[in-house]
Amino acid sequence: MSGDNRFLGLFYLSPYIIGLLVFTTLPFVASLYLSFTNYNLMNEPIFTGLANYIKLFTSDRTFRKSLWVTLVYVFTTVPLKLAFALFMAVILNYKLKFINVFRTAYYVPSILGGSIAIAVLWRYIFADVGLVNMGLQLVGLEPVNWFGDPTNALFTITLLRLWQFGSAMVIFLAALQSIDRTLYEAAAIDGAGKWTSFVHITLPLITPVIFFNLIMQMVQAFQEFNGPYIITQGGPLKSTYLLPIYIYDEAFKRFDMGYASAIAWVLFVIIMALTLIAFWSSRHWVYYAGDKRS
Amino acid sequence: MAEHVLSQSPSPAQDIDVVRAREMRRHRINAALRYVLLAGVGLLMLYPLIWLIGASFKTNSEIFSNPGFWPENPTLDGYIKGWQTSTPYSFGTFFLNTLWIVIPKVIGTAISCTAVAYGFARFDFPFKKLLFASLIATLLLPNVVTRIPQYLLFRDLGWLDSYLPLWVPSAFAGDAFFVFMLVQFLRAIPRDMEEAACVDGATTWQTLIFIVVPLLMPALISVCLFQFMWTMNDFLGPLIYISSVDKYPVSLALKLSIDTTEAFEWNRVLAMSVLALTPALAVFFLAQKYFIDGISSGGIKG
């Protein structure tokens, strides 16, 4: 069947190939070109060499702040979310009744979390007299100024992401459930405790899934937009002004397409560099059963 | 105490009973601790949503004074006035707009991704490895880098302020993730039936439609459901491309409602948020099996 016609497969792929060229490859190359130009939609793009990049790295304080905030956000949110998802998956991975009920309940926020309605809800529950502060007062704690303080404001965005740990947890749980039970029995006979088994059996066996979740969550976190845009509008003092919002403002509010493209490329290079580091380092810490690397 | 019991029981059979009983007790304590933790975290997670539903029936002053679920003076004000909005259009328009974005997009995704996945999983052709590598690369490519030129492209095509920029890329299998998921699923299905059909003289089209698609159905349903959810939730796409209020989907209308006159009519905004979440929640509970299977098998962002 597959030998009939060498080009039949390409026929089925044709929508993908056209889409790849028109909607991905062409824009990808174009954005690199635009990043070396001055283009405000009124006239043709004017080639300005490295001017945009020089401005970004020498005189643009907003960019410096935004880059820093983005890095802080990604490097706190991703590890916290993965650790929490894994912890909850381990708790769930036990002979319990209603395991499916809990799994479903934890997954609900992942389904809804990206929506504007939830971002709106977040604004309300972290308001000065919102649900969270009412709850804190009920248990005798001081209310917190969530949106007025730069550190707290970023933390509310992080919490919105943490709240959506369910999807990562379900992937971890599937991996945990596929581990061969006899390995634990053998380890127990050799006198290994719970913690030792976890570190030496569980963790190595689920490294491929940790790796997958790490890459996916990181790429996503670097592109966080809805949360800070709706909840904090980038403030206070630009403390939640993540790079995607800066790019959006430059491109679609100030119509500075060239400069926005340059920021997008800096963000892209950072994401790619971290992804490549993860892939490159994975050979040292990701364990594939039977050493099949595929 | 256990040792004491042990020393009293000389026969090995009783020993095993004692060990088993001890293990049962340990299991029960362990399970109880896990239940407490799971229920606690579950409640903490879901309470904001539960509170949201209650709050949408509260008066404006009660929203920021009552942390409980039950409204003291239940009112439908939020729903009735929120539905009308401060624009000439009601939320009915915005829901229809959302539907009109979502349905063609889901159909286009399903058809194009199925064809492309079939091509990848069942045929050999020139540049196959390169093309599959491009699929993985697209999967990891941050949208942020292609967004601006895409906007310029759609502007030159005269597609701004229409739904075409939202529909068309998906109809060209633009969501690499779904293609990848379907390819993985197809690879796990044996080819016997397809080969039999081929021997009987079926064309590849017929094989695809009458044999592969029915087998692929569970994965295809997952794809449609995820695309439905993501499109319902999509905000940045409409924000960039849609400028007329009469074409706004629900996500933009909600953003508008927190910006404009309803800024102090909290119950209207919360009531409309509840409505905005309802379709997604309903679909999720009706079809949760497909969601959980979809992410456990393929792994999904979210």
UniProtKB/TrEMBL annotation, chain A:
InterPro entries: ABC_transporter_permease (IPR051393), MetI-like (IPR000515), MetI-like_sf (IPR035906). Residues 67-278 form the ABC transmembrane type-1 domain. GO terms for biological process: transmembrane transport. It is found in: Cell membrane. Coiled coil: none annotated. The chain crosses the membrane at residues 7-34, 67-92, 104-125, 153-176, 197-219, 259-280. GO terms for cellular component: plasma membrane. Belongs to the binding-protein-dependent transport system permease family. PANTHER family: ABC TRANSPORTER PERMEASE PROTEIN, ABC TRANSPORTER PERMEASE PROTEIN YESP-RELATED. This is Oligogalacturonide transport system permease protein. It comes from Xaviernesmea oryzae. The lineage of its organism: Bacteria, Pseudomonadati, Pseudomonadota, Alphaproteobacteria, Hyphomicrobiales.
From TrEMBL, chain B:
PANTHER family: ABC TRANSPORTER PERMEASE PROTEIN MG189-RELATED-RELATED, ABC TRANSPORTER PERMEASE PROTEIN YESQ-RELATED. Belongs to the binding-protein-dependent transport system permease family. The keyword Ribonucleoprotein does not apply. GO terms for cellular component: plasma membrane. GO terms for biological process: transmembrane transport. Coiled coil: none annotated. This is Oligogalacturonide transport system permease protein. The chain crosses the membrane at residues 32-54, 94-118, 130-154, 166-186, 207-230, 269-287. It is a multi-pass membrane protein. PROSITE patterns: ABC_TM1. It is found in: Cell membrane. It comes from Xaviernesmea oryzae. SUPFAM superfamilies: MetI-like. Keywords: Cell membrane, Membrane, Transmembrane, Transmembrane helix, Transport. Residues 95-287 form the ABC transmembrane type-1 domain. Its main location: membrane. The keyword Phosphoprotein does not apply.
